[in-house]
Amino acid sequence: MSEDGQTFVSEKVRRALLELGLTDYEVRAYIALVENGPMTASELSDLKTIPYSKVYEVLNALAEKGFIESQMGRPAKYFPKSPATAVESLVQSIEKNVRHLSETVVKELMPVFEKRGGRERPDIWILRGEESIMEKVREVVSRCDNELLVAAPALSKEIAESMRALILSARARDARVQVMASSSVNPVLLKRLAEVSEVRVREQMFGGGIICDNREVVIVFSEDDGPMIAIWSDHTGLAKFAKNYFEYLWRESTPFKLKQHTR
Fold first, then answer.
1. What's residue 165's pLDDT?
2. 3-state helix, strand, coil in the chain (%, to 5)
3. DSSP secondary-structure letter at 44?
4. 194-219 residue pLDDT tens
5. What domains does the chain contain, in order, with CATH numbers?
6. Which of 215, 209, 210 is nearest to 123 (CA)?
């Protein structure tokens, strides 16, 4: 045993106790009691673990934290509680305090957050399945006030009609709408979209989606043997990159002539 009475406990345990909120002197005192058994304050100080002027302050703090108990006498003796009991008691106390602090923060700040129209905005969501993707597209378009860009490498009749309704809702808010589609899309469906937006076609398209007000983007990836997958993001950098790519493809696309497809 070393002269400070603390030879059997690793530095890892000491650091853990410090992380749990004990002071350095409290860690020394508790470990000394665990290693040596019950002691008086004077005996604890004689181990050169804690200065005598600090020993009662340290022992009282350990008792309040549930790490030791005392037996009254002349002089009083101090007993270490089981590490399992002491740590569990401390953890419960910490959890209770954290819950109280969390409730205080939420109770006061949430009304302010909500009053000012705040909303939690993750950078990216992964969407799976046509239904969930279309639901997100509808939500994004509902916030589109200035510009809606649509890339559609493939279109079913149902999706085309849904997009037409969404385009009309954006146009009602004076948003400019551009639709870029693959030349393989049925001209009848393109005609329906061209009636309410500017449409261009191109031979090849890799993926599709929408870009709203240079602020939000939904990018759809084709899956041959699985559900449709898309990502949504309100990350301005990603939205700007997507818009730049859309504009690059748009410039090299062919305008869809509505008159040529009108009987």
1. 94
2. 50, 20, 30
3. H
4. 999 999 999 888 889 999 998 899 99
5. 1-120 (1.10.10.10), 124-261 (3.30.870.10)
6. 215
